[in-house]
Amino acid sequence: VAKEAWNADVAVLLGPGINMKRSPLCGRNFEYYSEDPLIAGKMAAAKVNGIQSEHIGASVKHFACNNQEDNRMGCDSIVSERALREIYLRGFEIAVKTAQPMAIMTSYNLINGVHTANSKDLCTVAAREEWNFQGIIMTDWTTTMPRGGSSAWGCIAAGNDLIMPGCEGDKESILKALAEGTLDREELKACVKRMLRVIFQTNAYEASVPYEAGR
After folding, report:
1. Whole-angstrom distance, CA of residue 190 vs CA of residue 29
2. What is the pLDDT of residues 114-149, one digit of tens each?
3. H-type alpha helices, 150-184
4. How many Cα atoms occupy the beta-carbon half-sphere of 118 within 13 Å?
5. In the beta sheet, which residues pair with residue 32?
6. Is 140 annotated as catalytic?
7. For 206, what's the count of Cα atoms within 13 Å in the CB-facing half-sphere?
8. pLDDT at res. 214
9. Which runs of E-coded beta strand occur in 39-108?
10. What dihedral angle (degrees, nearest 10) is formed by the CA atoms of 165, 170, 175, 181?
11. Residue 207 CB coordination number (10 Å)
12. Is 63:106 a contact under the CB 8 Å cutoff?
């Protein structure tokens, strides 16, 4: 897979998918590994290690609790703290601690009333502070557009570094929040720093340091 990415000039693969298979309503079950977090986490770590050994980044997804296909951007997954930790986040935790993927992709849905792309508890507290995640966190596509429900400045405040695919409204949202003081400039600078560190370790640069060696 990584060799094909090289041939296609792809720097980061959008996978593996390690969301839990907890409901037949989830339309992405075909790309997820298991309904068991240990199996999913171990399989994901092996895949990430394989991909990144070839100087291609991996992005584990969808972080987290993506349980249905219909209304993916509006559904709210109500989950207890124990179930969240022991089932839905455990696979991601194993993959991060074992293989340090270059990226994590957040999901479209809300968890307990907060869109995952805007969740500091997920992106900063769990992934970075508790698991020592060193890569970037990115959104799924168009989650900050009007129908997506997430705000661009909220992504930055949460520690979600990369908004995909990005639009003019995102820039306006971030600049307005900075001007109003809603968004701390240091939070924005932290996202930029993480982005640059990862970008300069991709195959887009001839003299880049491989992610495995530079993290």
Report:
1. 34
2. 999 999 999 999 999 999 999 999 999 999 998 889
3. 152-158, 168-180
4. 19
5. 17
6. yes
7. 0
8. 46
9. 57-63, 76-77, 103-106
10. -110
11. 5
12. yes
Residue bearing tokens 């009007």: 146
Average pLDDT over residues 182-199: 95
Residue tagged active-site, from 36, 140, 161, 170: 140
Tokens (6 digits) for 156: 């930055």
Q: Which helix or strand (DSSP H or E) is residue 195 part of?
A: helix 185-199
DSSP H or E stretch at residue 114: strand 114-115
Q: β-pairing, 57-63 with 110-111?
A: unpaired
State how far the alpha carbon of 99 is from the alpha carbons of 28, 130, 142, 189, 214, in Å.
23, 15, 28, 26, 14
Burial class (CB in 10 A: 0-12, 13-18, 19+), 193: exposed
**Vertex 143 angle, CA 174 and 157, to 5°:** 35
For residue 129, give the 3-state DSSP assignment: helix
Strand partners, 138: 105, 162
Nearest-angstrom CA–CA distance, 45 and 13: 14
Both tokens of 18, joined, read 């390690």
Query: Quick one: DSSP state of residue 117?
Result: G
The amino acid present at 75, given as its one-letter code, is C
pTM higher than the cut 0.85: yes
Ramachandran angles phi, psi of 25, nearest 5°:
-75, -15
